[in-house]
UniProtKB/TrEMBL annotation:
Domain FAD-binding: 7-351
Gene3D superfamilies from the UniProt entry: FAD/NAD(P)-binding domain
UniProt keyword terms in alphabetical order: Monooxygenase, Oxidoreductase
Protein's name in the database: FAD-binding domain-containing protein
Gene Ontology terms, MF aspect: FAD binding; monooxygenase activity
The keyword Ribosomal protein is assigned to this record: no
Record has rRNA-binding as a keyword: no
SUPFAM superfamilies for the chain: FAD/NAD(P)-binding domain
Taxonomic lineage: Bacteria, Pseudomonadati, Bacteroidota, Cytophagia, Cytophagales
Length: 400
């Protein structure tokens, strides 16, 4: 590569800072522009970062930074709404099988770790920079415009601005919109009810009216979520208008016929319970145009049921940096990147949607049948996920 290149990175969530860190490794300067006025360290509940995602951070030698806040899940135990165990998955041998173990971590903590590392490595992060416009100047320069009236110029731009990406809307005004999946995810943090022991595994309960998942950290803090059927897409601020108390009562009602400890967890959760309508992205015809490329949720958001969205965003960052390192032209790098990634990520998006639909069964005959076949499907699913989890970015390798 002869000419120095500068990347404008839109969004400092998960993909953004990691994209900038990989670009720095291949000698490309990057600056990050984030819409929020400061780091959104309280935003969202928690994530399970899968071994393939942790392996990407390993390639940057920053996986150890998750140790202070994160912990490992030992597996998953599945139950029905009567408390009967349906299946069990072990994950304590992930290190041997995949090279890394999963990490459960609060979203805000993950954001903070990644952002601070970018700042520590002298990557400029500009807050309060909401992208509102993009202007392409042939195949040499791109200008980003922000809501505050400021502008930035670079040789190319990477949209890491999440599922409702403004970058995507600007370069592909006719692109398909995120699809609402008919479900609201909610959750929070509580203390483990007294007398309840835990195996260190994620507890997944197909409740009578809603799905519930929780895991206890070794210090006794419980990370939990519930998937609530909400057929009509909530209007902007509709969920925020529901008070914490009212939402708590709804959840208690939803889980009233499920094992009692779920109610204890909900009741003992202090303050607000986060609520997020669940979307995923239909396949986009392409992820790039001219000097602009989309990665992470901006290109291919999956619903949370896969536990892979963050890992896909991290893999994207590593692969795109390799493509930029190995291609003379930015447009060729973008095309190669899309080619290497699209099939893998879109398969995961489709699978996650099927998993989500399976959580919403309530008809008694369907529930009986689900309980019967679930052990088999969980085993099959675990086998199929080997391919997803064992993926490793060969960071030193030349991309063919
Ligand atoms: C409830 C829920 C639970 C989930 N659980 C998991 C899980 O367990 N495991 C997992 O792997 N994934 C999970 N996911 C998915 C995961 O959160 C996403 O896949 C991941 O955050 C994608 O990273 P990203 O960087 O592409 O986007 P984001 O993390 O959404 O980051 C986008 C950033 O861009 C900024 N931005 C937006 N618009 C603009 C603009 N106009 N200008 C500048 N900046 C802008 C945003 O403020 C944000 O900081 C979950 C998602 C949800 C909703």
């Amino acid at each position: 590569m002869t000419t120095p290149r500068k990347a404008l990175i839109i969004g400092c969530g998960i993909a953004g800072p990691v994209m900038a860190l990989f670009l720095q490794q291949v000698g490309i300067e990057a600056e990050i522009y984030e819409a929020q006025p400061t780091g959104m360290d309280e935003a969202g509940a928690f994530l399970n970062l899968a071994p393939n995602g942790v392996n990407v951070l390993k390639a940057l030698e920053i996986d150890h930074l998750l140790e202070a806040d994160g912990f490992h899940s030992e597996g998953m135990d599945f139950f029905n709404g009567d408390g009967k165990q349906l299946a069990q998955l072990e994950s304590s041998d992930e290190e041997q099988r995949f090279g890394s173990r999963n990490v459960m971590i609060k979203r805000g903590q993950l954001h903070q770790v990644l952002r601070n590392e970018a700042i520590r490595r002298n990557i400029p992060v500009h807050f309060g920079k909401k992208l509102t416009g993009i202007q392409l100047h042939g195949f040499q320069h791109v200008t980003a415009r922000f809501e505050d009236g400021s502008e930035a110029e670079g040789n190319f731009l990477i949209g890491c601005d999440g599922i409702h990406s403004r970058t995507r809307q600007l370069i592909f005004p006719n692109a398909p919109q995120p699809t609402y999946t008919g479900m609201v995810d909610c959750g929070g943090f509580a203390q483990l009810p007294s007398g309840l022991s835990t195996s260190g595994a994620m507890q997944m309960i197909f409740g009578k009216k809603a799905f519930f998942g929780y895991i206890a950290k070794p210090d006794g803090e419980v990370y939990w979520f519930s998937n609530v059927a909400w057929p009509k897409e909530p209007k902007r601020n509709e969920l925020n208008a529901i008070s914490a108390d009212e939402w708590r009562q709804r959840l208690l009602h939803n889980h009233s016929s499920d094992p009692a400890h779920l109610l204890e967890i909900i009741e003992s959760t202090p303050g607000e319970i986060g609520k997020w309508p669940v979307y995923d992205m239909p396949s986009l015809p392409t992820w790039h145009k001219g000097l602009v490329c989309l990665i992470g949720d901006a290109a291919h958001a999956t619903s949370p049921h896969s536990g892979q969205g963050a890992s896909m965003a991290l893999e994207d960052a590593a692969v795109l940096a390799q493509c930029l390192r190995d291609s003379l032209k930015v447009e060729h790098a973008f095309a190669k990147f899309e080619n290497l990634r699209k099939e893998r990520v879109e398969k995961i998006v489709r699978q996650a949607r099927r998993t989500g639909n399976g959580k919403m069964v309530s008809n008694p005959v369907a529930v009986w049948f689900r309980d019967l076949v679930l052990p088999f499907f969980i085993k099959q699913g675990a086998k199929a996920s080997e391919e997803v989890l064992s993926y490793k970015v060969e960071w030193e390798r030349e991309v063919a």
